[in-house]
Amino acid sequence: MCFFNCYDLNHSTPYINIHSHHLGADGDITITNTHQFFERIIDSNIHSIGLHPWYLNTNTLNEDLSSLERYAHLKNVIAIGECGLDKLCQTDWELQKKAFIQQIQIAEKLKKPVIIHCVKAFNELIETKKELKVKTPMIVHGYNNNKHIAEQLLQHGFYFSFGKSLLKSDSNASALIVTLSKERIFLETDDADISIKTIFDAAASRLQMNEDELKAIIYNNFKTVFQYERP
Ligand SMILES: [Zn+2]
Question: Does 10 fall in a domain?
Answer without folding.
Answer: no
